[in-house]
Amino acid sequence: MSVLLPVRNAAATLERALDSVLCQTLDSFEIIAVDDGSGDATLDILRAYASRDPRIIVESTPPLGLVPALNRGLDLCRSDLVARMDGDDICHPDRLLRQKELLDARPELGVAGCLVHFGGDAEAAAGYAYHVDWCNRHVAEQDIALHRFQESPLPHPSVMFRTSIILDAGGYRDGAFPEDYELWLRLMDRGVRIAKVPEYLLTWSDPPERLSRVDSRYDVDAFYAVKAQYLARWLEQENPFHPNVTIIGAGRISRKRADMLEAHGVTIEAYVDIDPRKVGKTVHGRPVIHRDELDGPGKRFAVSYVASRGAAGEIEEFLHAHGWGAGKDYILAA
C-alpha cells in the first residue's frame, strides 16, 4: 500500500496528518511525500519523520505545482494500490484497511472512495459543507456514475485507486481544469468503475488557501468546460436521439453552460423552463417550452443545467413521476 502525499507549505498541519496515517490499523504501507518547493518547515518535518520511520519516503522538488508533484509521487509508489492524502487532512484509523477490503472484495472496481467529515466552518463555508453532504449521498457505483456530471463525486484526498489504472490512463493531466474531477471523468469514460466504503474514513480540511478557493482552474466555469467534453462523449453513446438534446433550464447562465456542449458536436433543439417570462419565447432559434409540455419518455433526451440549490432533486422527482429514467431519458449536469 502506498499513500501519495504531495505538500507545499503545510507545516502547520502536516504532523497531525502524518500521525493519522502512521496510526492506521493497516500497518503495511509506505508514505510517498513529495514536497513541492515549500518555503516553510514542511520539508524539515518530513525529513524528521522519515528519519524515525523507514515507511516514509521524501522527495523534494522545485515548486512545479500540484499535478507534477502528483505524477512524480505516482512514479515513486511501489504498491499496486495508492491512497491519496493531503497535508491538512486526517485519516480515520481504519481508512486504509476498509478501502483495501473493498478493492480486494470487488476486483472489478478501479477506485474506492469513502464518506468524509467536513473539517471546516460549516456556517462560514456553507457551499463547501453542502458539497460534502452531496458527495456523501452518492456511494454506490451506479449512483456515482449517474451523478458525475453534476459535480465531482469524490473528494480527492479520500480515494484509493489501483495504480495501474491511473498510469494506463496517463496519470494526472495539467491544464485549465480541476485535475481530480478531470481524472474521475476520464476514468469513467474509459469504463473504470468507482464505489465508496459507506463509512466516514477521512476528515476533509477546508483552509482559506485551498487551491479550489484561489486557483482559476477550480472556477465554476472550468468545471463546466471540462465536464462538457466528457458529457458530450457520454451522450454520443447513451442518447438515442444524438446529437439532439433538450436543455432543462432556459436562464442565461444555464444556456451559457449548455452551449459548451455544441463545441463537442451536440445540438440543442429546445429549452424547458417553468418561468412564465421565458416560456413561449424563442432563444437563438430554439423554442422555450413549459415542462408540462414535455413529450413522454422515449421522445427526446433531456440534460438539466438548473443549478439552484434543491432544483436537481425537484426536477428528478418531476421526471420520475412522468416515467423518465435517469441515464435513459435524461441526465443531470448541474
Q: In total, how many beta strands?
A: 14
**Segments where pLDDT lies below 50 for 5+ residues?**
none
Mean pLDDT: 95
| Total of domains | 2
Q: What string gives the helices and strands in order?
A: EHEHEHEEHEHHEHHEHHEHEEEEHE
CA gyration radius, whole angstroms: 21 Å
Biggest β-sheet description: 8 strands, mixed
CATH topology of the largest domain: Spore Coat Polysaccharide Biosynthesis Protein SpsA, Chain A
Indicate the CATH architecture of the largest domain: Alpha-Beta Complex
Tally the helices. Answer: 12
Strand order in space, largest sheet = 3-2-1-4-7-6-8-5
Q: Describe it for me?
A:
This protein folds into 2 domains: 2-218, Alpha-Beta Complex (Spore Coat Polysaccharide Biosynthesis Protein SpsA, Chain A), CATH 3.90.550; 221-332, NAD(P)-binding Rossmann-like Domain (Rossmann fold, 3-Layer(aba) Sandwich). It contains 12 helices and 14 strands. The chain has helices at residues 11-22, 42-52, 66-76, 95-105, 126-137, 141-147, 163-168, 179-189, 211-214, 220-238, 252-259, 311-321, and strands at residues 2-7, 30-36, 56-61, 81-84, 90-91, 109-119, 160-162, 193-205, 244-248, 267-273, 282-283, 286-290, 302-304, 330-332. It has an 8-stranded mixed β-sheet with strand order 3-2-1-4-7-6-8-5, sandwiched between helices. Helix 1 (11-22) packs parallel to helix 2 and helix 8 (179-189) packs parallel to helix 10 (220-238). The protein is elongated and about 70 Å long.
